Amino acid sequence: MTTRTQSVDTTAGEARITWHRAPRPRLVLAVSHGAGGGIEARDLQALAASLPARHITVALVEQPWRVAGKKVAAAPKVLDEGWRGLWPALTEPGLPVVAGGRSAGARVACRTAAELDAAGVLALAFPLHPPGRPEKSRAEELTGAGRPALVVQGGRDLFGRPGEFPPPGARDPYELVEVAYADHGFAVPKKADTTQEEALRTITEAVGDWLGRLPL
Q1: Tens-place pLDDT, residues 13-55
Q2: Are 46 and 200 contacting, i.e. CB atoms less than 8 angstroms apart?
Q3: How far apart are CA 57 and CA 133, in angstroms?
Q4: Less CB within 10 Å around the terminal CB: N or C of the chain?
């Protein structure tokens, strides 16, 4: 695996891509961070460390607001603008690109996947609703993505537990994998019947297997 950082100018500001290149890659998985953190998130780092061995190049994307050092995430339309602006850099290797992200980054991927012709959508810790506000559902962003999708959700995620998600429909199919005992950041309690390492392995194996089944 080789790693390279690339700056990309967008109309929303300078974005940054950290490439974790695979030998003989078959696709690119582009994943962005959420509103409360960066690409150092445990799930993003786990994917970047494990998937290149499965011939999947991982591109960790930092949105312009994060690159600029701001502490508050930009508005959704600005996040989408930044993502659209860096998309040509993601497709430059000439491989199919799966759009992904965690939390707010997952929403961006869902909202823009069809127009950007993404090969699929990976939604890590999809924020189905604000904590304690299930009536404020964002399910339509997921079900309206228009591309094959995988949701990886913590069993204790206050932004939406796995059982709260609507059943996939014939026109909006998606798969959902539960990470037992995990919260919105995929952290598991020390007293849980699983370890943090096992939780991350659940994520990386589920994502790797799903990517391997995607029709490209």
Answers
A1: 999 999 999 999 999 999 999 999 999 999 999 999 999 999 9
A2: yes
A3: 37
A4: C
Task: Name the residue with tokens 């860096």.
Answer: 86
Q: Say what the pTM is.
A: 0.96
Give the distance from CA 121 to its chain's centroid: 8
